[in-house]
Structures are given as C-alpha cells and as structure tokens.
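User: Before I run my own analysis I want an independent prediction to cross-check against. Here's the chain; please return only the structure tokens and, at the end, one sentence I can use as a sanity check.
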Amino acid sequence: MLETIDLTKKLDKAEYKQVMPILREQLYQFQKTSWDAGIPIVIIFEGWDAAGKGTSIQTLTESLDPRGFKLYPIRAVRTYEKKRPWLWRFWSKLPARGEWAIFDRSWYGRVLVERVEDLVPENEWRRAYRDILDFERTIADDGYFIIKFFLHISKSEQKQRFEKLVKDPLEAWHVSPEDWEHHRKYDEWLLAYEEMLERTESEWGPWTIVEATDRRFTHAKIYKTIITALQERLKISPAGSPAETPLPSIVTVLPTPVVTPSETPLPIPQATLTEVNASTSVIEVNKTEQPNRKTDKILQSSKKSKNQPKE
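Assistant: Structure tokens:
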C-alpha cells in the first residue's frame, strides 16, 4: 500500500509563502471555535524516523493559542506505568473539553516499535489492535474528535536525511545507533506500518497519509487536512465542498467566518484557494483583505469572556 504512494509531490516556495498565512489564520480561528464549542481534539503524528514529525508539529503549534493545547512526546513506558493497563498512560493525557492534545507518537507504539523490536509477546501486540479500536471508539462516542497523520518517506530519503544530520555537529545528536538499526529493518517496519494502517482505519479515526519528502508540501497538507476536518465537525459550510476533493491530494479549503456562540463574527480574510495540484504545484490565492491578528487580540482583550482558556 505505502509503496504506491507518490512521494515526488512538492510545493513551490513562493506559493507556500503565499498560502500559509491564510491557513494559519484559519487554524487559529478554528481552535478558538472548538474551545467555545467544548469539542476536545486529539491529533496524532506517526511515521518514519526523520520523516519530519517534530518540525511539522512545531510549524503547526506556531499558529495555536498555547493556553488551549498540550503536546505529548511519547517515550518508552516507565516502570510505574508497567504496573497498570497499557493504555492507562494515554487515558491520563486526553484533553479537557475544548482543548487540543497533540501526540508525537502515541498508543500505536504497541503495534510498531514494541512489535518490531520484540518488546512484547506477539499475542499482546496482536490484541492491541482491538484495544486501540475500542479506545478510539470510546472517546469518539464521548465527543472527542480524532485526526491521525502518518508521515511517509522512502528508504533512500530516510538514509539521506540521517547522513545530512550526522554531518552537522549541532544536529548529529538526533541520529542514534537505534535509528540506524531501524533503517536496516526498513522492510520489517514497512510491514508493521501497513498492517497498522489497514487494521486501525475507522470511521471515527481515519488515517491521512502525508507524502513527507517535501517539507512545504507536508506542512500545507497537514494544515488543510485539519481545517477541512474541523469545518465538517463544527458544521461550518464553505462556499465549495472540500469533501469533493479526494485525499491524499491537498484539499480545497475556502475560508468561512467562524461565529462563536457568544460573540460576533471576527474579521476573516476573504480568499479563494484553488485545489493544489501536487504534480504541478499550482496554488492561486486572490486576497482582498489581510488578516490582522493584532487587531483581533486587542478587540478580544477588551472583553472578559469566561469562555476563554485560563492561564
């Protein structure tokens, strides 16, 4: 399945600079609206080593209000956590109503690293597929909205990125002997990833495979996927239907004024984004008004809204 993904998709630098300010403003508005609506958002990042999960998360969070989200980089299970059910440490990290939780790796480690490295018996990681589906279904039924990304790169691209990092004295620490061992087991990881994607795809927790060879394309697709998903979840109807544009192509998103329950509409840039053609990297943006977040914040600071996140 992953071998059929087109990893040559790119986005021109000038076009990236043109479209990203609009996407950042849109994401900021949707974060505020999800807070006012009390909808908890769970965003998961999985993918190959050196696929760009960290930089993608950094780019994503630059546009968000830090009071409204929490970031969890998941590491190996600790001793006291081993004494509890394996999903316990993730239950404790679920966001409150209206908050966002962003996971840099997640509960999928049970069917990935713990499987490939033989850290748990086979019957345990096989049973984890059912546990994961039940877990995600439970929180989805409770009102949580789940967005899952898998960042995909080729074996040769992964090797080039490792070698580039090793040559930089300030970045060499990112690459460990364990990373090279994972690279040598690329085919084993490929099998684990494909089975994970196939067996954990669901209506309430669908996967979005991101072609991560080009960083600009990666970041734009992540932004637009989240925006489109939240448009549908918050029942805001844009002028055009983003659902008509199939993934994994970057979807068309038309900005729509976000009306919060207790406030008047905030100024939103009037823009039209045509569908991104990944093979030709064409984006046309016709802006009639520049977003002004500073003005927005001044207006908002004059109001005492108890709906805003606490410090």
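Sanity check: The two ends are 45 Å apart (CA to CA).
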